[in-house]
Specification:
The protein is α/β, with parallel strands linked by helices and about 425 residues long. The chain has 15 helices and 12 strands. It starts with 13 loop residues before the first strand and ends in an 8-residue tail after the last strand. The model has no long low-confidence stretch (mean pLDDT about 95).
Length: about 425
């Protein structure tokens, strides 16, 4: 999934999905967006925006800004709310070059946290409402007020501070275009403050530290100042988080599901020009055999939820690696259900397979991929696997042989509590 979304006039529109929480959840894609001013929407941008299915717009700007620059266009499917969280005037563009953005902006964010409690709580209530669809919130550039509300929401969802800081700093990718717009609107004169429109990570880092020093944490601030209780946090998490992945050993009843997963993965490969798997190659007999002499694991979205993926775990793999008993665990047929699995599921399945291998007392997790599949090789290398060789004549399901790249990852030992 792409976080930054491409519009002609919007420069800082992005999806807050995909961020992990400390509790093992992931923020849903397509449910919560942040942006610069939606008053710029029109033409093809407007059509692209409507395609996202947004039902709620939260505009964090002053009414005077809206009068001057316009608001999001009206539409029967959109509920529009103007919640101006900034109550004290300040002038960023006119600051001198000696002003450090981190302390200056973080201090202003603290003022907003004190002044905007009513509007911030209203924004949370809107996002947590049970009938709320996808939501977008925005200010002028999508950096300061938008960044502050994003930080509050992500913190309440359990997203770690370092990820919140990283999200804030992504505005830097839009800084040049935002600055060009501001300069054009001001007669071609650049702002006096060189940091204007920029989003150094230090701004959010200093602000989060100040919130911890003042209130104990962002969560404590929300409880104390905004009246956020456990019920509201739970509602936010229901609306915005994917259910956790639950892992279990597959059984006989799962065999048809495993065949369907494998065939769907084969069709996905074929559609992308990858000649590795074919539908119908591996039937129920294959998976019954794997259940008998190895391990097959299933991942579901929550307990008893829809299947998100599966993989096979072998304790020997002579066809690719030779006979090396007790050397490693071998992952095969890592498959995700692309109609239900959230982005990043494949990596989470792989991490769970590695945990199982380490739990068995082995230091290496191994796998292979088609030698010509550069995309998959890159994917595994990004997950920490190193290319350690090639098997030029591995036997395939169609009675053919093909070359595979061999990859392995050294695992940290698992300490099992007594």
């Amino acid at each position: 999934m792409s976080r930054h979304m491409s519009f002609e006039r919007l420069h800082n529109f992005r999806d807050l999905g995909g961020y992990p929480t400390a509790g093992g959840h992931v923020v849903r894609w397509g449910r919560l967006f942040r942006s610069d001013s939606l008053g710029k929407l029109g033409g093809a941008d407007w059509d692209r925006f409507l395609d996202l299915g947004v039902t709620t717009v939260i505009d964090l700007r002053h009414p005077a800004e809206i009068d001057a620059k316009g608001r999001a266009p009206e539409h029967p499917t959109l509920a529009y709310h103007n919640l101006s969280i900034e109550h004290r005037p300040y002038d960023q563009p006119s600051q001198g070059p000696e002003v450090e953005p981190g302390p200056y902006l973080a201090a202003h964010y603290l003022e907003v946290a004190e002044d905007g409690v009513k509007e911030l709580r209203q924004a949370l209530d809107l996002i947590a409402a049970p009938d709320t669809g996808p939501v977008v919130f925005h200010c002028a550039s999508g950096k300061d007020r938008t960044g502050q509300l994003a930080a509050l929401i992500l913190a309440l969802l359990g997203v770690p501070d370092d990820v919140i800081i990283e999200d804030f700093a992504l505005t830097e990718l839009a800084a040049d275009r935002l600055l060009a717009d501001w300069t054009a609107d001001n007669g071609g004169v650049a702002p006096r403050w060189p940091a204007y429109c920029h989003a150094p990570a230090d701004v959010m880092r200093i602000f989060l530290t100040a919130m911890a020093d003042t209130y104990g944490s962002v969560q404590a601030y929300a409880a104390e100042q905004l009246g956020v209780d456990a019920e509201l946090v739970a509602a936010l998490r229901r609306n915005l988080l994917e259910p956790p992945l639950v892992f279990r050993r597959a059984g006989e009843a799962d065999v048809p599901v495993l065949v369907g997963l494998r065939d769907a993965a084969a069709r996905w490969q074929i559609a992308r020009g990858i000649d590795q798997w074919q539908p119908g190659e591996l039937g129920e007999d294959h998976f019954r055999a794997r259940l008998a002499d190895g391990e097959v694991w299933i991942a579901t979205l929550g307990p008893g939820g829809p299947v998100a993926g599966a993989w096979e775990l072998w304790w020997q793999d002579p066809a690719a690696w030779g006979t090396r008993p007790g050397a490693a665990g071998y992952v095969h047929r890592l498959m995700t259900a692309r109609d239900t699995a959230p982005p990043g599921t494949g990596r989470r399945l792989l991490a769970e397979a590695e945990r199982r291998v380490a739990e068995a007392g082995l230091e290496l997790c191994r796998l292979d991929c088609l030698a010509g599949n550069a995309v998959l090789r890159t994917y595994y290398r990004a997950a920490g696997y190193e290319v350690v060789g090639e098997q030029s004549a591995k036997s395939g399901a169609r009675g053919t042989t093909y070359a595979v790249t061999l990859l392995e990852k050294r695992l940290a030992p698992v300490t099992i509590a007594a």
